[in-house]
Amino acid sequence: MPGTPFLKDTLLKGRPAKIRCLDIFGQTFVFAGRAVSTIGLEDEWFEDIADPHAVIQALKSTRDPAPDILTFWQRMPDIEPRHSFHVEWEEIAVLPIQSYDHWWKSQIKSRVRSQIRKAEKEGLLVKEVAYDDEFVKGMTAIFNESPVRQGRPFWHYGKSLETVKAQFSRYLYRETMIAAYFEGEMIGFIMLANAGRFGLTGQIISSIKHRDKSPNNALIAKAVEVCATRQLGYLIYLYWSDDTLAEFKRRCGFERVRVPRYYVPLTLKGRIALACGAHRGWRAMLPRGLRAVLKRLRARWYGLQSE
Q: pLDDT per residue over 32-84, tens digit each?
């Protein structure tokens, strides 16, 4: 039987929030959704569901109202479907890693090599650093550079140093800090998470005014080096998307990889939602072309607001 549901502090869209959780066989699952409630592993990038069939039976026998749908996926490099449940495909950005030298010579575009060389000649320095007050000060300055990033309000804009330090210290046990400096100023950073089988770019961001120095390219280069040194077979840059960020990922050697995600209805409402495609929310139900148009309109709107 699952334990009693409990609330846990987290960040949602950059703001403190509480999420409803459930312990099942020693793994923490989180609830999501309103009209259709789903439940899935809290740290699905970092762990696999131990026994899907046992979890399904436990959820169906819970005394509390069962969630409508259980969802889970298979992590890299386990991408061939192994279960008979309803499956859909998640597209993630994956960089296979053999060595830094192989990445530099064979996996990236010549433009990226040129940008990294140019940045080094101009004095850009990228290195592993500690999560200390100096690093957090640099984070905060970059966060507060602009209220809008990538065409939408930036979640971390306006936060104090103390707030940033507290909110980003939750997972330091599995993260490596990588920072880029120009003339002593921190102009970009990655919080690179170790997921056992791969490295994960939990946070990568740089100063807008220093874009000409290509800090993000240099940060990815250092992340590749770290992953190769620690024998992590892949570097994952979260999800794939059809936008300018996808082009950046492609130039840096990332590939679009599909991994299976399963949806298991636990209630009548869950079966109906799955049948009509409502299990992933209303945004996912919109045609891809319409979503692209809406994103451009949103970016234009927030761009005007920030002028």
A: 988 899 999 999 999 999 899 999 999 988 777 789 999 999 999 999 999 99
Give the model's pLDDT for residue 17: 86
Strand partners, 89: 260
Q: What is the mean pLDDT of residues 113-121?
A: 93
- Could you give the 3-state DSSP secondary structure of residue 245? helix
Could you tell me the strand order of the sheet in which 69-73 lies?
A: 6-12, 15-24, 27-32, 38-41, 69-73, 255-265, 86-96, 234-239, 199-206, 185-194, 175-182, 125-129
pLDDT category of residue 162 using cuts at 50, 70 and 90: very high
Strand segments, DSSP code E, in 25-124 are 27-32, 38-41, 69-73, 86-96
Mean pLDDT calculated for residue range 236-250? 89
136-142, long-range: CB within 8 Å, 24+ apart, which pairs?
A: 136/161, 136/164, 136/165, 136/168, 137/161, 137/186, 138/179, 138/185, 138/186, 138/189, 139/164, 139/168, 139/186, 139/189, 140/164, 141/186, 141/207, 142/186, 142/187, 142/188, 142/189, 142/205, 142/206, 142/207
- DSSP label at residue 143: H
CATH fold of 94-256: Aminopeptidase (3.40.630)
pLDDT one-digit tens code per residue, 253-287? 999 999 999 999 999 999 999 998 877 765 655 56
Residue 185, token pair as written in the block: 């100023």
Could you state, in order of their start, the residue ranges of all structural domains in the chain?
6-89+260-306, 94-256
Distance from C-alpha of 168 to C-alpha of 161, rounded to nearest angstrom: 11
Grouping H, G, I as helix, E, B as strand and the rest as coil, residue 236 is strand
- Choose among 149, 136, 94, 27: nearest CA to 259: 94
Q: Tell me, what DSSP letter sits at residue 279? A: T
pLDDT at 150: 75
CA distance 38 to 24: 15
- Could you identify the residue written with the tokens 């809008």? 148
Q: In the 8-state DSSP scheme, what is residue 209? A: G
Quick check: 306 pLDDT over 80? no
